[in-house]
């Protein structure tokens, strides 16, 4: 239990820092439900964390009936990470890092945060949850599914963000995906496979 609590706190904090300090200042789009929350912020000035909770709710209902353990593990990660994303929003006003470095650094930090959550079978949003379910069903690494979902969100995000950020958003998403793939596949492969 203590390990899960620490994983939720550390992983969610890293995700929230990455989003607010590296992603939002440059109007980059991340993948999955977080990316949709960011699109809502850029287009309508919605709170991204609250948007993530609202959009993830139907997916968590599916998990509730599909596998309760994923629901219970995931809902805590969802609530904590979404809360921290909105709580740490002031960080976005203090970032002066160039967009290229932000794309790489943000992707690395978010990817590590998501990996910490996934290695403890916790998700930070709906797409992570679906990726965990699909990984369990197919035995394909969860990072592959996340990379696929993230790419779809980038395509959608390209409609509402300036063209100049599409490349850097893709770089961000790629860094998140490959970081997640590396940590979930090579750091603790036995734990991930045993849950597959």
N-to-C CA distance? 21 Å
Mean pLDDT: 84
The coarse overall form would be: globular
Low-confidence stretches: 189-196
Count of alpha and pi helical runs: 9
Q: Can you tell me the number of structural domains? A: 1
How large, in whole angstroms, is the Cα Rg? Answer: 15 Å
Give the structural class: mainly alpha
What fraction of residues sit in β-strands?
under 5%
Main sheet summary: none
Share of helix among residues?
over 70%
Architecture overview:
The structure is a single chain. The chain is mostly helical and 196 residues long. Helix content is 78%, strand content 0%. The chain contains 9 helices and no strands. It has helices spanning 2-23, 32-44, 48-66, 68-87, 99-119, 126-138, 142-157, 166-187, 189-194. The two termini are 21 Å apart.
Defining key terms:
196 residues, mainly alpha
Concise synopsis of the structure shown:
By secondary structure, this protein is mainly α. The protein has helices spanning 2-23, 32-44, 48-66, 68-87, 99-119, 126-138, 142-157, 166-187, 189-194. The protein has one domain (2-194).
What layout of secondary structure does this protein have?
Blueprint: H1 2-23, H2 32-44, H3 48-66, H4 68-87, H5 99-119, H6 126-138, H7 142-157, H8 166-187, H9 189-194
Helix pairs in contact: 1-4, 1-5, 2-3, 2-7, 3-4, 3-6, 4-6, 5-8, 6-7, 7-8
